[in-house]
Hints:
The structure holds two protein chains of two kinds. Chain A is an all-alpha fold.
Amino acid sequence: MEKPRPLWGNPLQFVFACISYAVGLGNVWRFPYLCQMYGGGGFLIPYFIMLIIEGMPLLYLELAVGQHMRQGSIGVWKIISPYLSGVGIASVVVSFFLSMYYNVINAWSFWYLFHSFQDPLPWANCPLNSNHTGYDEECAKTSSTQYFWYRKTLNISSSIEEYGSIHWEQAVCLILAWLVVYLCILRGTESTGKVVYVTASLPYLVLFIYLIRGLTLHGAVNGLIYMFTPKLEQLANPKTWINAATQIFFSLGLGFGSLIAFASYNEPNNNCERYAIIISLINSSTSIFASIVTFSIYGFKATFNYENCLSKVILLLTNVFDLEEGALTADNLDSMKDYLTSTYPNQYAELLPQIKNCSLEAELDTAVQGTGLAFIVYSEAIKNMEVSQLYSVLYFIMLLMLGIGSMLGNTAAILTPLTDSKFLSTHLPKEVISGIVCFINCIVGLVFTMEAGNYWFDIFNDYAATLSLLLIVLVETIAVCYIYGLRKFEKDLLLMLGHKPNWYWKIMWAFASPVLIISLFIFYLTDYIRTGTLQYQAWDATQGQLVTKDYPSYALAVIGLLVAASTMCIPIGALIIFIMKRLKKRSVSTLE
Amino acid sequence: MLGVLLLAFSLVTIIHSELCRPDAQNAFKVRLSIKTALGDNAYAWDASEEYLFKAMVAFAMRRYSNKATTQISNVLLCNMTERVSFWFVVTDSARNVTTVPGSEVEAAIRMNRNRINSAFLLTDNTLQFLKISSTLSPPIEPTVPVWLVVFGVVLCLVVAGILLLVVSGIRQYKKKKHESAETGDLEDNSNTPVTTENGIPCDILDLKAGQINGVYAADDERLTPL
Lengths: 592, 226
């Protein structure tokens, strides 16, 4: 009755699939931000320490477990202990939440990609207002790139309560994104295995092109110097270490069940130890590589804005005091300012609020992460380059590849347990199961294309996966080390690979990683409890900037539901199995 | 005689200075940024350029009101600065002591802005009439939004790919069913239970029958060589 399990065409497909899944948008838009906030070059120290303590061991654990048990996440934990089937279900639930909102990012990438074929780029200039006498009001208060993001792409409302209508352009982009994902996962490993060759390697090509372009941009060196000067005093800040640990944890995509799913399609004697080390090293070096590119772009943008600011100040002073053109330059600006203060004190005092103190440091300090970095900062830098259409197309194709690569992992995490279950696989072919999963996700994802959709996206992004994953991975580690038994696991690895794991792996699995995860968990809980009410950033169209608002009660309820839906699976699963066993025992004893 | 002339001259000058001064009624400030616009080809601003400016304003007034009454002498310039900025008024030709209403001057300049700009090789940004807003040219909108075209192409490709895979999958499935129906009970392969050991199906292990299992390979070293 059982078909032989589909396998990867060759081990390289497996490695590429894992790299494609692990190297995602977080490497591009989260790591550079953390680097900047927590000590520049010095951040690499806690980053590598955390990689060694938790990154590699936990990755090896998941790959080994998946490869040995040859099942998706639900089956694997059922084999280890029937009481742990809830862990697998929790992984599937978290993956489901993730795939719901993650594909919206791909929809945005498609949107920007399609708009890159215009000259000039649509986010390069502000649109005109209705009587063509000036620029649109909202756009004039902020920049054209921010206007394009908040108004044209998201059509964002001013708070989470105002739903608005579905933005049809975003909706069709989302449908296209899901069709692309469906096309890639349609045939299971047969199609996924070929797609990951492209999704894993193309981003590196684009990053390399951007590295060369970025380093040759005017002012790029400023950004790089700023990034790499280590601020070692940040090492004393506990947040640095916590963020390093969190970044390693989430960057590798542990706990979703995707790695278990990918490894389950391996040959049983695949050397997953070697691949675990390779994949985690590649993931970390990609983060560093991407942050070099990002910081040269930052440097370019900051220098450009700084020089713009200076020209504006010079123009203002020249016009007000009717000085000769070219009398004020960037070099003599300070001395001329002093001269003007002394000669025309009254007029200068009136002018003072309008004169901004242009500072390169201040421009470099504006640290941005997330969608803001990817879609606003980068597009602003791109519009100032020559041949901007080409760079724009390349960049958004790269974002698409990164996003689709991660989506393949997420959907594999959901579909592998579903296709493993005998009930579903006998009644429906896997193409239909994939289609149904994609369809449900697409319909739910339409919520994120409404006017308030981006606020709901932020809720999912911040809360759907964070706490739950920590708990899941903690339970996984403890289950393998203590419930299944470290010795039994060692023997399994001996059977698979031909050698036992050395003391480093054992110590990390049994002690270091669980302790680290527990401390991360405690930190996050206390942080949530301490800050009391949760807040979000809302876009205020009248001011042209973000303002902080409190979440309404139903949004808080949704957040609680998200966290509870996945974490509660673990104890509830154990409880249900316990009750079922009790009932069985009772029915057996009554028969006797 | 000389005294009368002097008196008339001083009177005119006083009237002129009253009519044309900064923030006077119906006066406009003009600002030129010649070096910014032309760089090395910048010309110097001198009396001839001022004359040309007066001529252009007079031209604009004539065009606007369609009566050839405005003279160059009706345009008064004052407060010239190094910036190259100055104020100007247009006096009424009929009555020399009053100025043409600002709204008329504004409309006239707006109508002929292009001509005035080109006379000085400048643009709306570099030849600024403060208080007179210029009409910005709207960006060129293509008839069909470009993004929809690209979107349509990509969508068609993806849907074609999906249909291809689905159809070929269905065909393969039908072929397999057809084949297994033909062979029927002879092979009975669909009913054979797959033997497993430790969760690993034996047929998978058999595929790599030639592989050396590391556990046993290590044992070879313990055999003492003869």
